[in-house]
Amino acid sequence: MTEHILQLLQNNEEWVAERLSEDPAFFTEMAKSQHPRYLWIGCADSRVPPDEITKTHPGQIFVHRNIANLVIQTDMNMLSVLQYAVEVLKVEHVIVCGHYGCGGVRAAMGNHQYGLIDNWLRQIKDTQNYYWPQLAPLDEKARENRLVELSVIEQVYNLGKTSIVQNAWAERGAPYLHGWVYDLETGLIKPQTSMINNEEILKEVCKFEQGIIGR
Ligand SMILES: [Zn+2]
Questions:
Q1: 124 CA to middle of ligand 1, Å?
Q2: How many angstroms is it from 67 CA to the middle of ligand 1?
Q3: Would 179 disulfide with which of 13, 74, 115, 152, CB 3.0-4.6 Å?
Q4: Ligand 1 centroid to 44 CA: how many Å?
Q5: Which residues pair with residue 99 across a beta bridge?
Q6: Closest CA to 180 of 171, 189, 172
Q7: What's the rounded Cα separation, in Å, for the pair 136 and 63?
Q8: Domains of the chain
Q9: pLDDT digits (tens, 9 = 90+) for 30-50
Q10: Quick one: how many helices (H) and strands (E) in the chain?
Q11: Are 196 and 93 within 8 A, CB to CB?
Q12: Pairing status of strand 189-191 against strand 176-182
């Protein structure tokens, strides 16, 4: 068992050697500062590594991950990351990226108790209930996939309603918000929203008033 963890340290040494062979100043430059253009809010799922699936490098994406990539207004962790990214780092884009086959979404769709996590996943149940008329006719797999998409759009809406994003929009017309879904089976990312950088586009894309977000 211990060899697995030792392997990570071994891998790290190899990675350092590779980086230095490509660019001897890689770490000294990286240590000076960070200027990421993107904030990524993604699922904690080990199969959705933001840097790798977007072919980006250290320093390019500021990252927040939690189970089922939720944006919950009372989550101080998420809000702190968002505030720092938007107001201090001044990121240009905030991406919420969910994924098909999300265990969090699947758990929220069932009645089995998993413990504390059930409380975290509550909001997904609310989303499912709210959009039940469009989810009900779908078969199980299609319903789960659609709920993944709807939940991502709902998180984008939640982001757009934070004072942090609203103030940044008023001040500099950015960041742009994006809702994406990653497909584990193909490796491809499917955008679920257009680029959103004001209240009007937010309403148009999410169409919450009409109850038909994502259509
Ligand atoms: Zn997930």
A1: 12
A2: 6
A3: 152
A4: 6
A5: 182
A6: 189
A7: 34
A8: 1-32 (no CATH), 34-206 (3.40.1050.10)
A9: 999 999 999 999 999 999 999
A10: 11, 5
A11: no
A12: antiparallel
With beta carbons less than 8 A apart as the criterion, state whether 60 and 37 touch.
yes
Question: Is the preceding peptide bond at 191 cis, omega within 30 degrees of 0?
Answer: no
What distance in angstroms lies between residue 106's CA and the mean position of ligand 1's atoms?
Answer: 9
pLDDT at 214: 46
Tell me how far CA of residue 89 lies from CA of 67, 168, 175, in angstroms. Answer: 24, 12, 11
pTM higher than 0.90: yes
pLDDT in tens, 100-127: 999 999 999 999 999 999 999 999 999 9
Residues annotated as catalytic (active site), given as ranges: 43, 45, 47, 99, 102
**Alpha carbon of 184 to ligand 1 centroid (Å):** 10
Closest of 59, 68, 65 to residue 38, by C-alpha: 59
Q: How confident is the model at residue 146 (pLDDT cuts 50, 70, 90)?
A: very high
Q: What six digits make up the tokens of 195?
A: 């680029």
